[in-house]
Design brief:
Bound molecules: guanosine-5'-diphosphate
CATH architecture of the largest domain: 3-Layer(aba) Sandwich
Low-confidence stretches: none
Shape: flat
Strand order of the largest sheet: 3-4-5-6-2-1-7
Strand content: 15-25%
Number of strands: 13
Structural class: alpha/beta
Helix content: 40-55%
């Protein structure tokens, strides 16, 4: 049987469905030879003569050897290709039948169907990408917000890889001194040597900690944070929800109790991704359907990572408003009060305003109907401040976002903390050496230099076929 990495693989790399163009990608040692069996070019009758990175026009043959389309073929010869292997890209018309026919034709000529993420996995195995860079490719494909794209761009540029290499480099530099101390115990490392080892370990710990601290913002960008809009009926929750999401999905009326179910949208605001929820107005009701909505709203509040409580500027705080404030405070999560309907005469007393001010991290006073842009801008800056989004430059800083990246960095941090303690306690050098080696091997895993095959397969299984 052919070893899986020496097999030539093929898949459609563009999304399924009708489109202007489709791209079929072939990668592996027989890529050019297989492509030559499904493609006829007048200019290059022997396809192997075609230069690399040059679009050749020609006809595609279907499984029955009959021409089924015309289009372009580009050869990327090893190692200058995405996978590092010989690659061929076939661009045909984007009909589902024709795309499928050309793929089947390629497969019937000796290519194997590519598994999920197999092209990127090969790029990783062939040293074209580190594991974090491969994860960045996955994030870029999934990116539906500009922030996710910027986070991926930063990691693809090697921001994480370079930072890890920098930390590993300084730790490796003290390993020589540690090994020498083990091999020649009679030659003391000396006070200076010990100081230097201690200082490299401490500064590496700080750098790992700084990287770990970026996880909350990285995750808030890549996965999003659960943000619930809630308040009593008719204060303008659905209007705010529609304004933030830019859609008219929530029903807005002056009849209380119209939102009975929980509505969700994923939006980009405040430099992060919000999984935004609109909820039924919280109040006491005998209506069974509405009371289910209120219960769901209360559950959404409990599961939230950020709350936006909406109040009506044109009426004094009610008992329900006060219960809503108490609930917000009791969750302990970051919270914003949005005093809506500021276009109407204000009926909130100074005491009401103080109660709101002292219970929320930020207060935004605006009007959904009269100054929607200002309202969005104020919400955006409040969220930026709460999340610390402006303190991080997604494109230029090393920012982690994945649980795997965090887990290995935590391992490196724990080993290095133990090494620091061992230095402070004057423990034997081999103990310091082993702990530093553990930290180094965890750092290597972050980028996949010494990672387990199972973990590599797990990372790439999240990709789609064709990538
Ligand atoms: P919800 O029940 O809290 O979801 O409130 P809605 O979004 O359905 O709004 C209730 C009513 O208040 C509707 O008639 C809206 O048009 C109106 N409304 C919402 N925001 C504002 C605002 O900023 N100013 C004024 N004057 N009316 C608003």
């Amino acid at each position: 049987m052919t070893n899986s990495i020496s097999r030539t693989i093929a898949a459609v790399s563009t999304p399924r469905g009708k489109g202007g163009l489709s791209v079929i990608r072939i990668s592996g040692p027989d890529a050019v030879q297989i492509a030559s069996k499904v493609f006829i070019s007048k200019k290059y009758p022997v396809l192997a003569d075609a230069p690399s990175r040059y679009a050749v026009f020609g006809s595609f043959l279907g499984t029955d050897d009959v021409v089924c389309d015309t289009g372009l073929l580009t050869i990327f010869r090893s190692p200058a290709s995405f996978t590092g292997e010989d690659c061929v890209e076939l661009s045909c018309h984007g009909g589902t039948a024709v795309t499928n026919e050309i793929l089947l034709s390629v497969l019937s000529r000796g290519a194997y169907p590519a598994g999920p993420g197999e092209f990127t996995k090969r790029a990783f195995i062939n040293g074209k990408l580190s594991l974090t860079e491969a994860e960045a490719v996955g994030l870029l494909i999934d990116a539906d917000t500009k922030e996710k794209m910027m986070l991926s761009n930063g990691a693809s540029k090697g921001n994480i890889t370079n930072r890890i290499a920098e930390i590993s480099g300084s730790l490796t530099s003290i390993m020589a001194a540690l090994y020498a101390a083990i091999d020649y115990p009679e030659e003391d490392v000396g006070d200076e040597g010990e100081k230097q080892i201690g200082s490299v370990i401490s500064s590496s710990l700080n750098k790992i900690k700084a990287l770990l601290d970026t996880y909350s913002i990285g995750k808030a960008v890549s996965d999003g944070i659960k943000c619930t809009i809630y308040g009593r009926p008719n204060v303008g929750k659905s209007s705010v929800f529609n304004l933030i999401s830019g859609e008219n999905n929530a029903i807005v009326t002056d009849i209380p109790g119209t939102t009975r179910d929980v509505l969700r949208e994923t939006v980009s605001l405040g430099g992060v991704t919000l999984i935004l929820t609109d909820t039924a107005g919280i109040h006491k009701t005998d209506d069974i359907v509405e009371s289910i909505g209120v219960e769901k709203a209360e559950n959404a509040v409990l599961a939230s990572e950020l709350l936006i409580a909406v109040f009506d500027c044109s009426s004094p705080l009610t008992t329900e408003d006060r219960e809503i404030i108490e609930k917000a405070v009791s969750t302990g999560v970051p919270r914003i009060a949005l005093i809506n309907k500021a276009d109407l005469p204000c009926a909130l007393s100074d005491i009401d305003v103080n109660t709101i001010d002292s219970s929320f991290d930020h207060v935004v006073k605006s009007s959904c109907t009269n100054s929607p842009e200002e309202l969005l801008k104020d919400l955006d800056s409040s969220i930026r401040e709460i999340m610390g989004s402006d303190l991080i430059d997604l494109r230029n800083d090393a920012v982690i976002w994945d649980a795997r990246q965090r887990a290995v960095l935590l391992r490196a941090y724990d080993s290095l903390s133990a090494a620091k303690e061992a230095v402070a306690n004057g423990d034997p050098v081999d103990c310091i050496c082993t702990l530093t080696e553990d930290a180094l091997s965890a750092l290597d895993e972050t980028d996949g230099r010494t990672v387990d095959d199972k973990i590599v397969s797990e990372v790439f299984s999240k990709f789609c076929v064709g990538k």
